Amino acid sequence: MKRILSLDGGGIRGVFSLMILRRIEALLREERGQPGLVLRDAFDFFAGTSTGAIIAAGLAWGMSVDELLELYRSRGREMFTKAGILDRYWTGMYDPQVIARLFKELFHDTETGAPAQLGTRRLWGDAPAARKYLLMVMRNATTGSAWPVCNNPAALYNDRSLEDCNLEIPLWKLLRASTAAPVYFPPEEIRLGGRTDLFVDGGITPYNNPALIAVLMATLPGYRIGWQSGTDQLQVISIGTGSTRARLTKQAARQVNNKDVAGFIIPAVLGTVAVEQDMMCRVLGHCVHGEAIDSEMGDLHGDGLLPTAEKKFSYVRYNRSFSFAEISELERRTGKSFSLDNTDLIGVLEELGEAYATAQVRREHLLP
Prior knowledge:
The protein has 368 residues and is an alpha/beta fold. It is built from 13 helices and nine strands.
């Protein structure tokens, strides 16, 4: 069986995802009797968007969950270093050079010290059993297209003979692009052959939850990976960062203005698309675990549009909704909004993530 680990975007709320991953790692270590096991040893394909791309890249690189958790604890505030006054007004609230330096520090060639490229052997390996696929999602703002970029050497745009071969793009640039959330960080420039394109956060695509595009990339002929589908052939573990519903008061809803477009409409659209991606995974796959999509549809476990025997993969979704009351309390405690850049939430997110993981993550979800 091939296994995909998919990680949503959500800024500093990636800490919530890491607590779930910590529980998964602990269960697999116990099951296999390998106290040094890391998730690279257990999964074949890592997919991530924005903060999920950072975590996915770290796991594919061979980092333990505790190493990544310590990264967010010790350097989370550094990631959100304020830009200069003029830059905050014109390009983004935070300094992109600081987070770029962090990515360069994490992902480099240990022998030469040079920045690692997407095609690095550290990810791909020399033997088939050691090969790991890494998918990172971003948006090419220049062409207006979603960019799910993978290190598969057989992919159409990963041909080394091409002037703009994706495998030669530094990992740090792809991570900067995937995390370049508008308003927060400026776009990232990437040189592609004879042109330079601008890239923004992968959350500004349908794939803030990248589980479905990861399945399609692994199975559709055009992507040239060619894995077999079926619940006994393919397993997907999809992990969110905690979901919220964007809403307006009745008065504000009657008088939506330009400020509301950024504060309500954009988050509302992105949240709705993420739920739709989760729903499609449950329709096409056999959902082993996941909270209800809504009160009418339910959790879509068992048969649905497709009988279980025809489902294309086994699917587990770990995520939880934060109620308006919970968010209000968290905002009261930190004095800041429940936003992707609120680093004061790190400790709280650890507590919430650990409680969720203890209650929801089960051995039988992970092992067929």
